[in-house]
Design goal:
The protein is an alpha+beta fold. Helices cover 19% and strands 51% of the residues. The longest helix is centred in the first third of the chain and has 32 residues.
Length: 170
């Protein structure tokens, strides 16, 4: 009996995982059919079964929010990312963490940063502001290759240096 119960439980968990993958794929297809891109800003972060961020964006003058898993608790309130959404249903969206940005009017400064860790989706980089050493994660697009020790320009907000972008993309 024990083996039967284990097999049934495994089957249930496997089915739930497959449904989640199917729903994510269906959402992605829906967005790609009528794709729009908006500027989003993080308005809240937290940790509940993993790190998450709530990102606010606007389309046709209407405000939308997207609560989504974030790659780490490094995502800061006030940080900006592109948001991809379905123009027929703008609430169906996804945050593009690979596309952080600053607005032209943001007061920023630049320094050098070094990659200290690389995994299959993110790089962790280290940079200094004054005498304070900062570390931050940043996701990157599949197919790009980075190495520990690589040095890049880091742009950060003067008023909040924890909001920073490693300039690894064109």
């Amino acid at each position: 009996w024990f083996i039967c119960i284990c097999c049934v439980l495994f089957g249930v968990f496997f089915l739930i995982a497959q449904i989640g993958v199917f729903q994510d794929h269906k959402k992605e297809e829906q967005i790609n059919k009528h794709e729009g891109v908006a500027d989003g800003v993080v308005i809240q972060t937290g940790s509940l079964k993993g790190s998450y961020a709530i990102v606010e964006y606007y389309y046709n003058g209407k405000r939308y929010e997207r609560r989504e898993f974030s790659y780490s608790d490094d995502v800061q309130v006030g940080q900006r990312f592109k948001v991809k959404f379905d123009t027929n249903d703008p609430a169906t969206s996804t945050v593009i963490y690979q596309q952080p940005f600053f607005k032209p009017e943001d007061r920023t400064c630049k320094t050098q940063g070094a990659i200290v860790q690389v995994d299959s989706r993110t790089v962790r980089f280290e940079y200094e502001v004054g005498s304070k050493k900062m570390k931050k994660f940043q996701p990157y697009t599949d197919g790009q290759v980075y190495h520990e020790g690589d040095v890049y320009t880091v742009e950060y907000l003067i008023d909040n240096p924890r909001i920073a972008i490693l300039k690894i993309f064109n």
